Amino acid sequence: MNNQSKGVQNSGANIDVKDYLFKVLAYWKLFLVTIIIGLIVAKFMNGYLQKTFSLETVISVKEENNPLFSTGTNIAFNWGGSSDELETVKVILQSRSHNEIVVKRLNFYIQYFQDGKFRLEDKYGYTPFIVNLNTTKPQLLNKLINIEFTSDTTFKLSFDFNESGNNAIINYDTNTISSLPSSELNYSKDYKVGELIETPFFSFTIKQLAPFNAGEQFFIKFASFDGTVGANKGVSVSTITNAASMLRLRKDGVNKKRLEDYLNATVKVLDSVKQVQKIEYAVKTRAYIDTLFKDEEQKLIKLEKELGEYREKNNIFDLSTQGTEIFGEAISIEKEKQQILSYREYLNNLKSYIKSNNKYNRDNLVPATLQIEDLKIAELINNLVTKSSFRESLRNLVKDNHPDVIQISREIEIIKNNLLENISSLEQVNSNRLRKLNANLNKYQSQKRKLPKKEQGLITYQRDYELSEANYNYLKQKKYEAGTAIAANVSDVKIIDTAKDLGQGPNYPIPSFNYLVAIMLGGILPLFYIIIKEILDNKIHTAEEIQNNYSIPVLGVVGNNAGNNNLAVFERPKSSVAESFRALRSNIQFLFKDASNKDSKTLILTSSVSGEGKTMISINMATVFALSGKKTVLLGLDLRKPKIYDDFNLPNDIGIVNYLIKQKTLEEVITPTKIPNLDLILSGPIPPNPSELLLGNAADEMIEQLKKDYDYVIIDTPPVGLVSDALELFKHSDAVIYVVRQNYTERGMMRMIDDKYKNKEVANISYVLNDFSIKNKYGYGYGYGYGYGYGYGYGKYGYGYHENEESTSFMSRVFNIFKPKK
């Protein structure tokens, strides 16, 4: 395997990073344009997109009890630990009922707008007026009402009715929507500040907050109450730390003043609701005790009267020493027995209630006049009420098959079973105490019967009076506790940090982020374009590509001919293009079969398709040989598409075709040129059978004769990729130049001639890279370019040889704007 083949094999494994870097840098104009466009778009989007802000408030939620009450005092009932309290508060803050209170308190269904650059801007809190709405009257629903200030204290109110004649109205007190017909298309009227605006469609007054600017306009709209509540339910509630009972409330929106008011109001509503809930039991207890207290007071007065009458009637005012002792012991036992009986009845009712219900509240679990002495039962009731309340709050948000509801239902069931077990144990203890008390009472009853009848009656009256007085004093104490609990209520909600507008910037859009994205996309999108273009690119660009992928060697490169014709060497002998042809003249000596032979040398030039510049190379190679003092002849054997005549400003009437068909002699078709030592044989008229003419004996004889008459015979042949004529002419050559054009010749086009070279069917052949410009695509070096047209040969390259000529499309010309300039 030769070195060239090895180079072909190894080339795929090596990636020239520097080469790719220069390719990318060559598109710097495209990068610049896309980045500028991206920044313009980002600037527009930063101004166009609706800005959204975020405000937050921090609160502490912790059960706070008045130290005057113990955990066993039912009026100061403890509603659970901090963990359950936090979860309950989270549910409350996101519940519809809570947010309905907040929306109604803030009148958020009244919306304020002003025309902005791109949309109506929410101006809540920034208007020089507010609307005082009469919520008992219907209001026009979801209709923009224009308010235009006409002076410092007057304004014009106007709006358009629905074209259908039916207009929706809403009553906010009842939250009902109805329809009201209208015969007019619009409404417009002037009003003064503070004047009642009363129509069938609305009823409100305008309260001035700041001076009006004449001509300034605002819009108001009365929105749906339910829709407003739904739009404002999205308060984000999160726990700050597990160790502390603190919550962070956050809300996003387009108006910071609206966010500030809503967050602060929702905390105030929560605080008031929690306080009401906390003293609700105490309020109910005091109301219930007031009723019992009055009844017991009347009963005590009655018993006191009866006791007095009995004493006067029976002339007995004091008990004997023995009677006093018996009465004292018996009344103590009676009071204790009465408490145990009341407690036993409560436990029976509690057990029945727990078994027969699935929802539990404080009122049914703990009677207002009962003090729970058993701490375990009190704790279990606390947990049962808290869990049940939390589950009902969850059911307002999710279904019963939700994992959270299932989990808390299991916890409630466990608490119920534990509570029932403790009730049974306590019932057994109370039964034993009750038996002992009854036994003691029987003992004192026996002793009582030994006393005189009048003294026994006095003991009975005094017993009833003492029991009633004890109950009266107990109710009096409970009434005092309830009143103290209400008066000394301590809030569970503490505001750590209120929501406040501190000049926070929008959290969307973020201008710096958008500009960064614009720059990134401005760099990435062109990069993708370059990568895809490179992947789809199958053109030849450098001599290294030819060396790495083909076996035929590269003889040299020719730069761009910037002249008006192809006589580059003759007309601009000092140009870099002329110098490249002199280099080819020197290099081609090593290509000839016998360079030391002084005989005539024949050089054939061909290419894959038309348009690659072989005619230009032929003319200038002939010129450099002629200018070096060698007698040279240039033959235009491209009979199908002759070009040489045009560069020499000659007619193409007489040429090789005339000689081959015996119309002219060889001397008659040879034309001297203005270039010393250079003769020219044009192709002549285009024949119908060019292949037959070139393959005939006359063509062979002509070439043999020219070899005798000239030092160099330069033959411009048809492209081998289109016709086979050139291959047949190779037998006359001492060397063959195969022209490849940068950014034009496709890689696959050269495979055929390269295979013939490797199979030794063709020898003494080399590639010449034409129209070469290092700066063309790689961004460095000097600049060349060759302006031959596209559209010949294979497909789009077949112009002149096949009937499929195509012009460059408009889109191609547009995309060429972003190509690196040659």
Automatic annotation (TrEMBL):
<dbReference type="Pfam" id="PF13807">
    <property type="entry name" value="GNVR"/>
</dbReference>
<keyword id="KW-1133">Transmembrane helix</keyword>
<keyword id="KW-0808">Transferase</keyword>
<comment type="similarity">
    <text>Belongs to the CpsD/CapB family.</text>
</comment>
<protein>
    <recommendedName>
        <fullName>non-specific protein-tyrosine kinase</fullName>
        <ecNumber>2.7.10.2</ecNumber>
    </recommendedName>
</protein>
<feature type="domain" description="Tyrosine-protein kinase G-rich">
    <location>
        <begin position="455"/>
        <end position="534"/>
    </location>
</feature>
<keyword id="KW-0829">Tyrosine-protein kinase</keyword>
<dbReference type="InterPro" id="IPR050445">
    <property type="entry name" value="Bact_polysacc_biosynth/exp"/>
</dbReference>
<dbReference type="InterPro" id="IPR025669">
    <property type="entry name" value="AAA_dom"/>
</dbReference>
<keyword id="KW-0812">Transmembrane</keyword>
<keyword id="KW-0067">ATP-binding</keyword>
<dbReference type="InterPro" id="IPR005702">
    <property type="entry name" value="Wzc-like_C"/>
</dbReference>
<feature type="domain" description="AAA">
    <location>
        <begin position="610"/>
        <end position="754"/>
    </location>
</feature>
<feature type="transmembrane region" description="Helical">
    <location>
        <begin position="513"/>
        <end position="532"/>
    </location>
</feature>
<dbReference type="GO" id="GO:0004715">
    <property type="term" value="F:non-membrane spanning protein tyrosine kinase activity"/>
</dbReference>
<dbReference type="InterPro" id="IPR027417">
    <property type="entry name" value="P-loop_NTPase"/>
</dbReference>
<keyword id="KW-0472">Membrane</keyword>
<keyword id="KW-0418">Kinase</keyword>
<feature type="transmembrane region" description="Helical">
    <location>
        <begin position="20"/>
        <end position="42"/>
    </location>
</feature>
<keyword id="KW-0547">Nucleotide-binding</keyword>
<dbReference type="Pfam" id="PF13614">
    <property type="entry name" value="AAA_31"/>
</dbReference>
<dbReference type="InterPro" id="IPR032807">
    <property type="entry name" value="GNVR"/>
</dbReference>
